[in-house]
Amino acid sequence: MTQPRPPIVVILGHVDHGKTSLLDALRKTNIATREAGGITQSTRAFQLQSPVTVTFIDTPGHAAFSAMRTRGGQIADIAILVVSAVDGVMPQTKESITTIKEAGIPMIVAINKMDLPGASADTIKAQLTENEVLVEGYGGDVPTVPISAKTGSGLPELLEMISLVSSLQSLVSDPSGPLECVILESHLDARRGPIATGIVKNGTLKTGQELFLDKPVGKAKALSVDPAPPSTPVEILGLTSVVPVGSLLTSTIQHQDPTSNFKRPPSNHTILNVILKADVLGSLEAITFSLPAEVNLVSSSTGEVLESDVLSAASTNSQIIAFNVKVPASSAKLADVDKVKIHTFNIIYELLDALDKLVHPQSLETIVGEAQIIAEFKIDALRVAGCKCTSGEISKSNTIKIGDKQARIKSLKMGKTEVEKVKTGQEFGAVFAPPVDFKIGENIIAVITNG
Asked: What range(s) does the Tr-type G domain occupy (predicted)?
């Protein structure tokens, strides 16, 4: 028999606009200060019991976690779009708006950081209107609530608005019906084995229950909430493997098409082989989709860096990227012996920046000589710059710069003799390739590139 169930509310918004701080204030914990770089990097869920029961899902704001935000939107009944009253509508704000519209769920805009100087709710409402979010008072019916996650101002009104919006929907499920539990996060714990975090959409999850995807995946040996009725976020222990994020755990076998069966398109320009280790499947998915095209992903998995990972890296000439996972001393020692590089990160954008630098190393230029153009000649229709070296040396192997133009030296002559280089005080004629539109009086800078 169907019964009313609590609403599932997803929190969306741009990086560092205060999503986690909002949840922090609602449940009066201190997650935000523990976040690496202050940015949520996995999907978290919790249930607020008072004054009304609401299940909240926090989603990452960083661009790399697009799939995780989309997944959160698909599970939820209501979306709260958090927008900073100071920073306004930003790139992930726009993406979140698209996610909410595609999910077809009601939206509430929480205009956060109203305690800061320069905060303006009216400015945010105008920006939202420009992005096709028609809020109340601006020609639409999308409710807005000014809040401050820091001071707690506006939070009672936000909860009241959630209750009002959910009451206009028919949110029902059957606690005694077939189990449906959507997996939000999944990882391998070194001590407790595979662990999954999910939200029950239908039925009731109980300890001892057999669980299935398209095959049996174990038994619920322990639950963080037991029993877990509809709309309840729950941590599940006892699975036989790390189940795909986005998959649907059921009480019977059925066909699965989880969103996290992700594959990265192959590249024909491999520069770096990488073995990727991450804390949870959501992080693994986000990093995989954000890798530079020049990176060849040899393997990826959740859990700490194992000695087998180091051996695999050594045999495939790979580097190990470890995100939010430990590197045991035994693995570090083996990596040192086998000369395998292990890079550890706990902030997604630092990891991606570092990978970009590995495949696109910054070139360092050193000035080795300078000259001034003192004359111009034409020989066989070629423009020849008559120059005098004013410092250092200039050779045919150098890159030369004239203003904002760059070229190589095709011909370098002293008199009628072709030479390889000239020194300070010497006069010479030069032909540039590609041809450069130079002028008498301009300076030439010769550089060599390192790295």
From this structure: 4-172
